[in-house]
Amino acid sequence: MTINLLGGTVVGDDTPLGPVVELNRSPLQRPGHDELIWEEVVGGPESARDQRLLIDVRTLEHLLEVAKASLTQRAQLDQVGIHARVWRAKSGHVYATWMLVHKPAKPEMSRALVGGAPAS
User: Fold this and answer.
1) Using CA atoms, how far apart are residues 3 and 9, in angstroms rounded to an integer?
2) pTM, two decimal places
3) Are residues 105 and 58 in the same domain?
């Protein structure tokens, strides 16, 4: 099954990134924030799959410096995707590694300061 970004998956569906473990099509709204239409958790600690995201110190330090330059204290990654690879160890254990792919990190700009909805 492929991931349907329009909310067509259901809890238990198996996607290339892992099983859908949580799905909320009527999330609580926060006044003054953009409308949250739906959310979905794929993989993660509720999944039995061995999936790893490795981030090196240099990358973490860079993201921290970018976040410090923002009034919101957050780094923004645009056009984010996931490069997932599935491996088989010599022992036979199968696991996946994930790498975020994105445009260069930039300081998040507060929407409240530029006339839009507050940052979420």
Assistant:
1) 7
2) 0.61
3) yes
